[in-house]
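RECORD TYPE: inverse folding
INPUT: structure tokens
STRUCTURE:
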């Protein structure tokens, strides 16, 4: 897998100022996998002369915790990627924003309530059983938007042209879950539109979300949601840092936690260098300061 995009190709595809975001979820402690994402986010932004927006994706109110948010920012400040004055957006503060976006979406698409549980249908794809039932919207029911079977395309600056059919992948997309929480797909798409994000840099585990977010963004844009940035944005899905058993590194993996590495005596540059080496951006774990991560992508390192 290509570990770094060709910057000339990035510039040709984007043709717009680079605005991207670093968007951790406060459901655990920062680990090396997050540092890998930070390297790609800030490294590409430094190399392309853009800006990074900070977004706390705490739409999951059950798993999100204030102490995890504080810890995430403390570690990001120690690494050097943010400072105490860095502004950020918190999704839990944006209920009215998402409600307005939903009202707009209702004008251009079929939004409906669903009482199906995940156990009632096999696999990830929802078969649309409640689409024409006319159920009332009430607690305990999922809110969905109907999707047709068209294919969506997007440019991935590391993987090439993407083609996905959201309806075949996931069926009608959930906007609010049974507990009344906005879903990841909906909140992220609304925020990317309203913040004029032009480049989404994230791990390859979120590759399958691309088509459904592109489709949802098109519907929302048709409803007047969003600013002047082109839609869809460019994408860069980078390699994941894997655990010893080949699975994605999780927040529960303490050995790779930034706080534990810091307590063991590693410097911020050591930790960034270790993360860069772990995904093949360097030949070995040499120290890299946060202000130099752009060199990993512009050919100077």
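DESIGNED SEQUENCE:
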């Amino acid at each position: 897998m290509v570990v770094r995009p060709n910057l000339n190709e990035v510039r040709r595809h984007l043709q717009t100022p680079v605005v991207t975001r670093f968007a951790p979820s406060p459901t655990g402690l920062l680990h090396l996998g997050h540092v890998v994402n930070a390297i790609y986010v800030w490294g590409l932004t430094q190399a392309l002369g853009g800006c990074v927006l900070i977004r706390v994706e705490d739409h999951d109110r059950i798993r999100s915790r204030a102490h995890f948010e504080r810890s995430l920012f403390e570690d990001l400040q120690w690494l050097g990627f943010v400072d105490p004055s860095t502004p950020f957006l918190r999704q839990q503060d944006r209920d009215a924003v998402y409600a307005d976006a939903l009202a707009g979406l209702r004008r251009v698409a079929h939004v409906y309530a669903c009482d199906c549980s995940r156990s009632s249908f096999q696999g990830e794809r929802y078969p649309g059983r409640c689409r024409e039932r006319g159920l009332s919207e009430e607690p305990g029911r999922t809110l969905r938007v109907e999707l047709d079977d068209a294919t969506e395309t997007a440019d991935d600056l590391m993987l090439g042209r993407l083609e996905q059919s959201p309806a075949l992948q996931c069926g009608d997309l959930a906007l609010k879950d049974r507990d009344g929480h906005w879903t990841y797909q909906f909140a992220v798409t609304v925020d990317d539109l309203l913040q004029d994000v032009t480049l989404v840099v994230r791990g390859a585990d979120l590759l399958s979300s691309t088509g459904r977010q592109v489709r949802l963004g098109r519907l929302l844009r048709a409803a007047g949601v969003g600013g002047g940035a082109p839609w869809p944005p460019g994408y860069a899905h980078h390699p994941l840092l894997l655990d010893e058993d080949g699975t994605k590194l999780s927040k529960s993996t303490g050995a790779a936690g930034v706080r534990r590495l810091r307590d063991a005596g590693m410097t911020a540059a050591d930790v960034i260098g270790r993360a860069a080496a772990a995904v093949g951006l360097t030949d070995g774990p040499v120290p890299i300061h946060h202000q130099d991560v752009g060199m990993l992508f512009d050919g100077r390192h």
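NOTES: The longest strand covers residues 51-56.
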